[in-house]
Amino acid sequence: MMSNNFVELKGSVFKKFEKRNLYQMSCADIRERYHYLVLLSIVVLRNMTEFSWNPEHFKQLIPDLILVLAAEVLVDWVKHAFITKFNCISAEVYLEYRASLANDLVSSRKKTAYSDHTDLVSRRMGFIPLPIAALGIRIFTQSFKMSGFISVIIIILSYISITLLKILISIVLLGKGCQYVKDYKLDEPQTNKAHSTLNREASQSAPNLYPDPQSPGLVPSDSSISLTGSDLTFSSRDIKAPSGAKKVQHNKSLSDIDRYTLCSNQIV
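Given the sequence above, the corresponding structure tokens read:
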């Protein structure tokens, strides 16, 4: 783990990163930390099983666990500090990343959502839970030997407890996600209002790309005329040149023109 951290640190610093690439790296770091927590839990479980659940052995494992987790946090902190420093990215961008993940979580809970609430966030972070779940079940069955009616009751109670814990965590995460979305103003009504305001301002400030057909520079045409033939040509008599401009001859057919645009029976 330590060698992988240093290789990751060496390969990430002093490179050009944009906000989108930094977002992907942040999601990958979150996924990596969760994998480390699962793997360390498996290591502790197997060691405690081999030492007959001796509390003294667990006390000996605690410094090593803290060292591994602290090294992971330190390496990620240095890596992100170098990336944001040399690419001139503000630290407030992480609030935007958090709001984006919270928006995925909240939007997946709506009735109009097209995917499951766990699938959308997992795809965003690149997390695949099935291999981790299979590994956890395998280690759990090897560490605990159960047989008889009492073991079945314990398994059922454990399953119910885990399900209730999952529901509780989902409720807490949904509440925090709604709070982050409202703080960052990503809720749907405000977003639609902002989009309509921006569209209105853009329409007012944008130049008139489709002027009046009688204005100079446009050639009125009939929709029945074939545009693929060579019958329709541009002539200097059809186009009124503005005052003070140089006289330009336009004796080219449409077949000789590389790019043209049709706008409501007008050729621009």
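The CA atoms of residues 39 and 83 lie 28 Å apart. Try to locate this feature in the token string yourself.
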